[in-house]
Structures are given as structure tokens and as C-alpha cells.
Design brief:
alpha+beta, N-terminal domain of MutM-like DNA repair proteins, Helicase, Ruva Protein, domain 3, 2 domains, 4-stranded antiparallel sheet, DNA-binding
DNA sequence: GCTGTATGCAGAT
DNA sequence: TCTGCCTACAGCG
């Protein structure tokens, strides 16, 4: 699930797996040949996540490898000595005992320092980073007429939230997705920020998006959606009863992305 | 086996 | 607002 928690978990896994090791690096698919060659035979640099972006340092170079998984990219780390190449592997990292295969990313490229700065400058605060400043996000939200649902998905406002966390966060705080940013109360925002920090930390540790409070997951109104992605109040539960009030969950498309909410529970400002 | 769909985003229109 | 990227899986027959 490539929302922010996936990238932070991935950075952790890569650092634990390859940290301090000299790695072999290649691009079996052939679309990252030069970048992979630069990394090949070097000691693995530290991997760091910023929102949905992953940056990996390269020993002996100022450049960094930038990876963005997009909608269906996957970076699979397997504890084996050898693994046949299956499908289109953009980037493969190996050391004795471990293989990491990157497939289907939106971006896998070398970035020079100025390009890294440009990338990071256009990201809002990331709830999973200790240095994140929620006031930066608040100032953008408070000044905007755009719907809060749109703002939460804007990586320049907050970095790392995706469609699942957006839907679930709005539900957990009873906020109408259509509410303009400027209509949101500061106290509500403060509570939402604290909540998303905790929810995404759970996402990192469990490797899944879990947002349903235990007391709601087996309520009389229905069952939380359970899937590969986790468990949800409203995400992908269109027409199923709201876990809290029983009203059928609503679904629509906003800015080309699916949106889910409970018309009864979500009226807060 | 085929079809539809997806947690994202850039670039064209 | 629409299209393309490029992968995996659920659901269907």
C-alpha cells in the first residue's frame, strides 16, 4: 500500500537489510542501468522517506536514488541468496542473504543535490517525521477555499497521506469532505494531526493501514472492511452500513480519486 | 484466461 | 479533466 507509511517502513527495511553492506546493484529491466551501475559495488547509503518519496544515498557520490512507487510500484525485500528475475525488475539490490526487487515504480532515478532540494521543497510536513511542523499545513488549509478532502491529498500541504488515510481520517473526526479548508476549526485540525501521526505510526509498525477502533470493528451496524490493505470505516465500503450509525456509506469521485464518507456522521467543522 | 480496478502523479488537452 | 504509466490481484466465466 504505497501511502507514506509504506515508504517509511521500506526505508527501515532497506537500512536494516543493506546498511553497512557492500551491495550489488543492477537494472534487469534496463530502465535504470546507469543509476544502478553507480550504486553497484558501493556501501549502501542511508535510505530515508519523505512523504511518499524514498531517497537513498550513494557512497562516493553527491547524487541520490529517488524512488516513487506510484499507484502499484513495489519494492520487495527477500532474505535469500538468489532469486530468479520475475517480470519487469527496474532495480535489484543484492548482498549475500538478501535480494530487493523494485517493480513498477513511477520514478526510479538519480537526483543531483539541487533536484533533491526542489523535490523536498515542494512537500508539506510529513506526519511520520519528527521535524514535521503541522502549522505549515494549517496555514495552507486555513487560507484555502478548496475542499478539505482535496487538501489532505495535496502533497504540498501534507506529505504522505493517500486516499485511504484521507477517507478514514475525515471519518474519525466527523469532518465533511466537502468542507472548505478555511471552514475547518483549528482545534479540529490539531486533533486530526495528532491522530494521523498515531495512525501512520501504526501503519509503519504493522505494515497495514488500521484505522478502526476495536469497539467499532464488530458493531451491530456491520463489519469493517478487511482486506490486504487493512481495516476501514468508509474506504471502499460504498453502500455498506456505516460502522457507527448504520447509514449507507457514500461514494463519489473528487479530482479523479474515489472518495468515501458517511453522510450522517461527517458534519463537523 | 480475461476484465476491471487500485493506495499516485505528471503531462497533455 | 483526461491519458498513460506498468503491476498485481479479485472477481468472473
Amino acid at each position: 500500500m504505497p501511502e507514506g507509511h509504506t515508504l517509511h517502513r521500506l526505508a527501515r527495511t532497506l537500512n536494516r537489510t543493506f546498511g553497512s553492506h557492500v551491495v550489488e546493484s543492477s537494472s534487469p529491466q534496463g530502465r535504470f542501468t546507469a543509476g544502478a551501475a553507480l550504486v553497484d559495488g558501493t556501501r549502501f547509503g542511508r535510505a530515508q522517506a519523505w512523504g511518499k518519496h524514498l531517497l537513498v544515498g550513494v557512497e562516493g557520490s553527491q547524487d541520490m536514488v529517488h524512488v516513487h512507487l506510484g499507484l502499484y510500484g513495489k519494492f520487495a525485500v527477500t532474505k535469500v541468496d538468489d532469486l530468479p528475475v520475475v517480470g519487469q525488475v527496474r532495480w535489484r539490490l543484492t548482498r549475500p542473504g538478501a535480494v530487493a526487487d523494485l517493480r513498477g515504480p513511477t520514478a526510479c532515478e538519480l537526483l543531483a543535490p539541487p533536484a533533491v532540494d526542489i523535490l523536498l521543497d515542494r512537500l508539506g510536513p510529513d506526519p511520520l517525521r519528527k521535524d514535521a511542523d503541522p502549522d505549515r499545513a494549517w496555514r495552507r488549509i486555513h487560507a484555502s477555499r478548496a475542499p478539505i478532502a482535496t487538501l489532505l491529498m495535496d502533497q504540498a500541504v501534507i506529505a504522505g497521506i493517500g486516499n485511504v488515510y484521507r477517507a478514514e481520517l475525515l471519518f474519525r473526526h466527523g469532518v465533511d469532505p466537502a468542507l472548505p479548508g478555511r471552514g475547518l476549526d483549528e482545534a479540529t485540525w490539531a486533533a486530526m494531526w495528532d491522530d494521523i501521526v498515531e495512525l501512520m505510526k501504526i501503519g509503519v509498525s504493522k505494515g497495514r493501514i488500521l484505522t478502526v477502533r476495536p469497539e467499532d470493528s464488530r458493531g451491530p451496524a456491520g463489519r469493517a472492511r478487511r482486506g490486504r490493505g487493512g481495516e476501514s470505516y468508509v474506504y471502499r465500503r460504498t453502500d455498506l452500513p456505516c460502522l457507527v450509525c448504520g447509514t449507507p456509506v457514500a461514494g463519489s469521485v473528487l479530482g479523479g480519486r474515489n472518495l468515501f464518507w458517511c453522510p450522517t456522521c461527517q458534519h463537523r467543522r
